[in-house]
């Protein structure tokens, strides 16, 4: 038997959708999560999203949102899909970021750098 830690965390641990005007499939949620993670890691503003069934862009809103006990950096995606155009507002959960081993860009920059 494999251990629980070898399994991927549930999607709701990684991404929390605040609003979606289009149907959000598991593969689209994974695509949005990947784009947001890249933006967050690089502290960038915008990233294109493209695939067989989706085209658009994800914007890093550069602010933290909280919904009850869930909080994290906020993102907005404007997408064209096979089911039409729409907007998705979501956040990467702090718990999900910790599970993925990602720290805030400001925290990484604040650590001392050694050149030796």
Notes on the protein architecture:
- The protein is an alpha+beta fold and 116 residues long.
- The protein has one domain (10-100).
- The protein is 28% helix and 40% strand.
- It has helices at residues 11-14, 26-42, 94-99, 105-110; strands at 15-20, 46-50, 54-67, 70-81, 84-92.
- A five-stranded antiparallel sheet has the order 1-5-4-3-2.
- The protein is globular, with a radius of gyration of 15 Å.
Write a brief structural summary:
The protein is an alpha+beta fold and 116 residues long. It is 28% helix and 40% strand. The radius of gyration is 15 Å and the shape is globular.
List keywords for this structure.
five-stranded antiparallel sheet, alpha+beta, 116 residues, 4 helices, disordered N terminus
SSE diagram, text form:
Layout: H1 11-14, E1 15-20, H2 26-42, E2 46-50, E3 54-67, E4 70-81, E5 84-92, H3 94-99, H4 105-110
Lateral strand order in the biggest sheet: 1-5-4-3-2
Helix content: 25-40%
Taking the sheet with the most strands, its summary is:
5 strands, antiparallel
Number of helices: 4
In what range is the share of β-strand residues?
35-45%
Assembly level: single chain
Give the radius of gyration.
15 Å
Count of distinct strands:
5
Uncertain runs with pLDDT below 50, 5 residues or more? 1-5
Taking the alpha carbons of the first and last residues, their distance comes to 44 Å
Q: How many structural domains?
A: 1
Mean pLDDT score: 84
N to C succession of SSEs: HEHEEEEHH
Question: Outline, from the CA principal axes?
Answer: globular
* Class based on secondary structure composition and strand pairing: alpha+beta
